[in-house]
Amino acid sequence: MKITKLLTSVATAGAILVSGAVSSSASAESTLETVKKRGHLRCQVGQPQPGFYNLDSKGNWYGSDVSICQAVAAAVFGDKTKLEIQSTTSAKRFIALAAGDSDMLSRTATWTLLRDSQLGIDFTTVNFYDGQGFMVRKDSGIKSAMDLKGAKVCVSTGTTTELNLADFSRTNNLNISPVTFEDKNVRNQTYVKGGCDAMTNDKSGLASNKAAFANPDEHMILPETISKEPLAPAVRHGDNQWADIVRWTVNVMIAAEENGVTSANVDDMRTNSKNPSVRRMLGAEGNLNEGLGLSKDWAYNIIKQVGNYGEVYEKYMGDGKLGIGIPRKGSQNALWTKGGLMYSPPFR
Ligand SMILES: N[C@@H](CCC(=O)N[C@@H](CS)C(=O)NCC(=O)O)C(=O)O
After folding, report:
1. pLDDT value of residue 27
2. pTM score above 0.85
3. Gap from CA of 288 to ligand 1 centroid (Å)
4. What confidence tens digit (pLDDT) does each residue in 233-290 have?
5. What are the structural domain ranges in the chain?
6. Which residue owns the Cα nearest ligand 1 atom 10?
7. Which residues line ligand 1 (CB under 6 A)?
8. What is d(CA 160, CA 162) in angstroms, rounded to the nearest whole number?
9. Ligand 1, closest atom to CA 205?
């Protein structure tokens, strides 16, 4: 009988209340079995915002983090639409995942030691390297984060953002007053209406928030990056096979880009590629699918239905019609072959 911690209250990285314990036996149904029986994947994202997770006029979700949800559904069911998206605030996300409301979380969550080891969840692999920044109104005259002495700064609660802001203020003797919000829409409105001198968030989040403002040109993101925010999909602690499925789904998207496999050419690649690694990944040879408990065409389905990492980045994070214009070239989110940090372990 294995004992796992059940968390009833989580204050991101502050006080963690661990109440009692629940037992789970080795014979308990695996997440993969539960998901298959249910007939769809439950995937948690954040409150709608451009780039990561957003809603179209028909109520359909799209975005880079939504694409990871779709990719896991494609891997498990061969159908990216076998998916229920759940939208949760930053403050509630980890409790909801640990409690079993969703099968995975794909929503701008920073991988930290405390979250990985004390909240009943596990991070899989980084799908976006970010860092925290500040946004101000252009007419404020503020040009640097060091100008924020005594400033009121709008920030979401239950985030690393809130904690980093306190560290930054203390380290630099800035005496910043945080103004905290659970609902990011109220946070944004308060900032836009002048209730705060600045707003802080992951820089990609700031670009996303700014893109959704009525007058984005009136705002600017300050040059400083005050933290490391490796954003990674997470799963509930204790089911290694399920963690492998989510981790290798992201790896497929990265490896596909590295090897020039796209949603447009994946059929041709599966039949004609001479690259052994690509052949193994696409199930044309070998049995790499078996340990994951997935069919031979799991990776093919991900790429065919969702696309590789670069395709998804361009569409939602880059200069695509729905994108939020975050340059990838020269950034940490470029492939390792182009000087970035996006790197998949080998398909063998
Ligand atoms: N990466 C940070 C920030 C989390 C976060 O989701 N921040 C932004 C998104 S970039 C936000 O506006 N969150 C509100 C929401 O989506 O509900 C963390 O993991 O704590």
Report:
1. 54
2. yes
3. 35
4. 999 999 999 999 999 999 999 999 999 999 999 999 999 999 999 999 999 999 999 9
5. 34-129+231-338, 132-227
6. 205
7. 46-47, 89-90, 108-110, 156, 159-161, 184, 201-202, 205, 229, 231
8. 5
9. 10
- Among the atoms of ligand 1, which is closest to the Cα of residue 158? 20
Q: pLDDT (tens digit, 9 = 90+) per residue, 67-100?
A: 999 999 999 999 999 999 999 999 999 999 999 9
pLDDT digits (tens, 9 = 90+) for 96-131: 999 999 999 999 999 999 999 999 999 999 999 999
The radius of gyration of the chain from alpha carbons, rounded to an integer in Å, stands at 21
- CATH number for the domain whose boundaries are 34-129+231-338: 3.40.190.10
Non-local (6+) Cβ contacts of 221 within 8 A are 133, 134, 135, 203, 206, 207, 210
Q: Residue 173 phi/psi, 5° resolution?
A: 50, 45
Does residue 23 register a pLDDT over 80?
no
Q: Domain 132-227 classified CATH 3.40.50.2300? A: no
Q: Where are the alpha helices (DSSP H) in 219-316?
A: 240-258, 266-272, 276-281, 298-305, 309-312
* Distance from residue 263's CA to the centre of ligand 1 (Å): 29
Asked if the domains at 34-129+231-338 and 132-227 fall in one CATH topology, the answer is yes
Has residue 212 got a pLDDT over 60?
yes
Ligand 1 center–CA 271 separation, angstroms = 41
